[in-house]
Design brief:
single chain, about 350 residues, alpha/beta, globular
């Protein structure tokens, strides 16, 4: 039986040994956040008694209640999962404006940039096999499950990668090092929490989203293997949101498109965006983070409230509903993954 080529068991040891990605950069980021946080306290009188925040429960962040400034400040101290933003097939608009929106909202830039070339947007011409190997590599290195967000064809690639991880196209998947962009000679990773080996096949990412992804382009480009799978979400993602634009001729939607549905236990949401949303211009969100009032509206919005996002009518509110919905899910999973890693033995 061939011996697996795997890294040493990191189950025991300090945080930087357990999670190789947590080295000087992570420690410097934490120190900088602490310095900034304490500097901001200089102009505010300290209360005689600390009040419990509605965003915290017994000293922990409530990952479904992250609208206040105090919660966002605490969230900034947690490690952030890698987010891979996948652009459409004809990148007239890439996913870089969306990534810059996330940076403006407070998401760490280092968790958005490609570790090989520093880009903020990834081509949807890459393969689902490679993406599956990359997300598993990131988890092994950091202990944080990545997120995949795709626009148009990029959304199709998100869904295809979920099916790839589910074993729809191959029995085994090689780990891929994104720093070299090359596959490694192994199909297993070592779980950074348990020390156990686990195959890349079956790995589960934290969150995925597809924006304006339709069946018509799959037909026109001959992507036959995805036609029956495009709206089916397997258990290789914890939570998935499908965003649809009504009457979107590029996606082939004539009204409300077919909904996304789980094949098992994944949490799947379907969001119908305003009809005025541009298919090509959907990723254009950087301007929303530049306006303080709009940032406050986006931070306060929650999908469970059932109300639309209403920005100031005098500001540019393009794509604000899409931005708020994505930002809620992203910071929720940032909170969940970050607290999970912070709770790991040796993380203190």
């Amino acid at each position: 039986m061939r011996r697996l080529n795997v890294p040493p068991n990191p189950h025991a040891g300090a945080l930087h040994r357990r999670f190789p990605g947590w080295h000087r950069t992570g420690r410097r980021r934490l120190a900088a956040c602490l310095v900034a946080g304490f500097a901001g306290l200089g102009s505010v009188a300290a209360p005689a008694r600390a009040e419990a925040s509605p965003a915290t429960t017994h000293g922990r962040l409530d990952c479904g209640q992250l609208g206040g400034a105090d919660a966002l400040a605490a969230l900034a101290l947690l490690p952030a999962p890698r987010i891979i933003n996948l652009q459409g097939s004809v990148p007239i608009v890439t996913m870089e404006p969306f990534a810059r929106f996330l940076i403006g909202m407070g998401y760490p830039e280092s968790s958005l940039r490609d570790p090989r070339d520093g880009s903020l947007s990834t081509s949807s011409a890459t393969t689902s096999t490679k993406l599956a190997g990359i997300v598993a590599w990131h988890y092994e290195q950091t202990g944080l499950r990545p997120m995949l967000i795709g626009h148009s064809r990029g959304g199709m690639l998100v869904v295809r990668t979920l099916h790839e991880l589910d074993g729809a196209f191959a029995d085994s998947i090689q780990v891929v090092d994104p720093q070299s962009d090359q596959p490694l000679s192994r199909t297993h990773i070592r779980d950074p929490y348990t020390g156990a080996l686990q195959p890349v096949r079956g790995f589960r990412i934290a969150f995925g989203a597809a924006i304006a992804t339709g069946a018509l382009p799959r037909v026109l480009s001959g992507q036959w293997s995805m036609l029956s799978r495009l709206r089916k979400i397997p258990d290789t993602v914890g939570e998935f949101t499908g965003f649809t634009i009504p009457w979107d001729p590029i996606a082939g939607n004539l009204g409300a498109a077919e909904i996304y549905a789980p094949t098992g236990s994944a949490l799947v949401r379907n969001v119908l965006l305003p009809a005025a949303t541009s298919h090509i211009g959907a990723p254009l969100m950087e301007h929303l983070a530049a306006d303080p009032a709009t940032r406050q509206v986006i931070n306060a919005w929650r999908p469970q409230d059932g109300a639309p996002v209403v920005p100031d009518p005098v500001v540019d509110g393009r794509n604000v509903q899409l931005a708020a919905d994505l930002w809620f899910s992203i910071r929720r999973h940032w909170c969940l993954e970050g607290q999970r890693r912070s709770d790991a033995p040796g993380a203190g």
